[in-house]
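Q: My labmate handed me this sequence with no annotations at all. I'd like to see what the chain might look like in three dimensions before we decide whether it's worth expressing. Could you predict it?
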Amino acid sequence: MPESALEPALRPQRDAQRTRAAILAAAQDAFSIRGYSDTGVREITAAAGVNPALVSRYFGSKEKLYEAALSDLLRAGIITELPKENFGVAVVDLLTASQGPQRNPLPMMMLASADPTARAISDRLLKELFVEPLARWYGPERGAGKAACFSALASGLTLYRELYPLGAFGAEMSAETRKWLAAAFQALID
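A: Here is what I predict for the chain of 190 residues:
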């Protein structure tokens, strides 16, 4: 059968995947900039260039969209796949990259904390998708404590870099500050 004969049958599924991905990306951007409470479904769908009814079709509700958007970003593998020999430097590079293939989920979570429903979703997903896998990766001896320390350090850096900017953590971060942060993250491995 010619390839063109298959194309119409494949197009709706590809369009559905593309539409779902566009909604998810627009939601991640909006929730990371304005927070959960200050973001409406219409804003998200306008940014994605789709009909607002499609949020209900693909996600069911704003809450489920938030859950999908955060789940898509919270992957412990992003951290656990970093090389252990220069783990601290790699983590600091990842958390301070201005643009990269992976959006930092922490601003989205921090901005959602004022809403009880979104906060509960964030708490559950953080534990299930990030802290618990990270604790297992660190190992049974003090793994949970190390995962908690990692989360606290990463959250603090993100908070004071992106939401309440302190010059010391900005784009012109000194070599001394970067070195201290890298050493703190590396100490969780060594």
